[in-house]
User: Fold this.
Amino acid sequence: MAVDLQQTHIPVLCKEMVETLDPTPGKMYVDGTFGGGGYTRAILNKGVSKVIAFDRDNDAIKRAQSFTQEFGDRFEIIHDCFSAMDKYLKPESMDGIVFDFGISSYQVDEAHRGFSFRQNGPLDMRMGVGAAYTAADVVNTFKERDIAEILHVYGEEPRAKKISKAIIAARSVKLFETTQELATLIRTIVPSQDGFDPATLTFQGLRIFVNNELIEIERALQQSNKLLPLGGRLVTIAFHALEDRLVKNHSRVAFNHQEFLCMYSSINRKVITPSLDEIRKNPRCRSAKLRGFIKEIKYR
Assistant:
C-alpha cells in the first residue's frame, strides 16, 4: 500500500523553531533542508519577504513546485547541497538560517531509497547530488578495516569490528543487494533492545558516510558566518551526538566579520527537546535537539 507522505510528514519542533528564529516581515531567510517544506511554510506564514530553500534530493525539488505556485517570488528552491549556499547567496544577505540535519521522513518512508532497515529495498542511501558511493558499494567493495571504521566513527557502533568481519564473510558467498539482507545479518550479531533496532547504528554510519554529512554540516556552518549580518539568527536541529557536537563546537569559535571579531551567543539557556506529547505523535523526533544562536560582536 502506498504511503501518503503529505499526511505522514511532521516537522520536528516547528513551533519552537519559529519562536527561536523569530521571522520578521520584510526580511529574508534560508531553509537549508527543505525536505517536505514544513519549516519553509511556517516561516513564510510569518509574512517574511522571502525564503530561499536548499535540498540535494530531486524528490524534494519536485515537492517544492507547489510552494512556487502558492508563494510566488517569495519562495525559491535551489537543487544543491546546503554546503554550497555561498555559490548562490551574497555575504550578509540573509537575516536567519535554519538547518534540520539528518534524514527526512520522506527518505525513510520510501523503501526504494534504501534508508530503512524496516522496509526492504535496494541498499542505496544516497540523498541526492554529491554522493559518490551507494551503501552497497561500501559493504561489497570496501576493506574490512575501512567498513569497521565507518561504523565506529559515523555510527558510533561498539560492535563495528565484529559486524565488519561478518559482512566480509557474508559477501564472499553473496554480495549484498537489499536493506533487509544487511539488517538481518546485523540482528544476528547485535543484541536486541526495547524500541531500538540492532541495525540502527550501522545504517546511520553508512548513511552519514555515503552522503558526506558531517563535512557538509561543517561547511554549511562556516558559510553561515558570512551569510548572516550582525544580529542574524542561526537555528539548528540535530538528531544525534555527532551533528550536535559540530554545532556546539562551531558556536564556541570566534570568527572575523569586517573589522570585528564575532561569535554566536545562545538564544536559549538550554537545548530545546521535543515534549512528550510531540514524541507520542511522532516517535522519530525523540532524539531531536534544537539550538538557536545570534551573531554578535565579541571584540571591537
Q: What stands out?
A: Residues 213-227 form the longest helix (15 residues). Strands lie at 28-31, 50-55, 75-79, 96-100, 233-238, 255-257, 260-266, 289-299. The chain is about 40% helix and 15% strand.
